[in-house]
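ugh ok so i messed up the first submission bc i forgot one of the chains. this is the corrected input, ALL of the components this time, i swear. 308 residues overall. if the numbers dont match what u have on ur side tell me asap before i send this to the collaborators (the ones from the other lab, u know who)
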Amino acid sequence: MGERIKLTASDGFVFNAYRAVPEGKVRGGVVVIQEVWGLNDWVRSVVDRYARHGYLAVAPAMFDRVEYGYESNDYSQAQFAVIGELTKKFSQDTAMLDVEATVKAAAEGGKVGITGYCFGGGITWRAANRGLGLSAASGYYGGGIPNYIDLKPQIPTEMHYGGKDTGIPIEQIEMLKGRYPEVDIYVYDAGHGFCNSDRPDKFDEAACKKASARTLEFFHKHLG
Amino acid sequence: MFRSGLAGRSPALRSVFDLCAGRLHLVTEAVGVRIADYPKLGVEDFMVSIYNDHTVQRVLLALPDGGRVPVHPVLAQAMAFLRD
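and heres the new structure output, hopefully the right one now
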């Protein structure tokens, strides 16, 4: 449904992205932030899904500054060393420049929301803290909560976590809830990665449907 | 006498006795992970490491000289000694 495009950040860096435009009326724009596997099949399918729901959706390739063009559909441990190397060199500061450029691209559709999964969930929270011209943020199982708990969201934000996520302790989720009572933080009876339908060992259809419906309702309310 | 005899034959078991007596203690600390070791990580440790500066939390035996030893292999060695 969508197409691969190039975007330019404010510092001149040109990076890959994937964009999908709705066929009918456009309700707004949505930025989709990847997991750690780049602009792979699943992330592009999420972009296409938001377009089917009426949003001009764009996903930036968040690792292009580290390894241009990286993307993988290999979810096995064989990729762990590659991803470890990528995240070692990854910069949150320049990442926000790429997110900002993507927000501008999605703004062609109107007000812009941001969503992201795992690594992208953390980026979603950080983008909500920066503002970046966004109108709403809905993040999924962003790991490393202690690394972003001090960053207060500046826009309406909600987050979705798996209660059985062995990489994100429930105590940290409770800390986040306590710290930001104005943020809707939903916990599902599922593990990490519950919305990745390309990973049958992680995917929880019931939890993903519920969370995705909440995100859409949230975006309908804040974007249009 | 019996315990000291066992401890004399197994350094690992001696450490367990010292732990129980409070002469040694456990700590949980961040331990760095080499990129080359990433394929050996479980999914949870992989996640934790990429969000925590490539470190994972490990339970360690704190030695009197300030050194640190992973406690699980010590426990495994002590158990293996008792089984034999």
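quick check: Helices of chain B lie at 2-9, 11-20, 43-51, 71-83. that seems consistent at least. Chain B touches chain A through 17 residues (CB under 8 Å).
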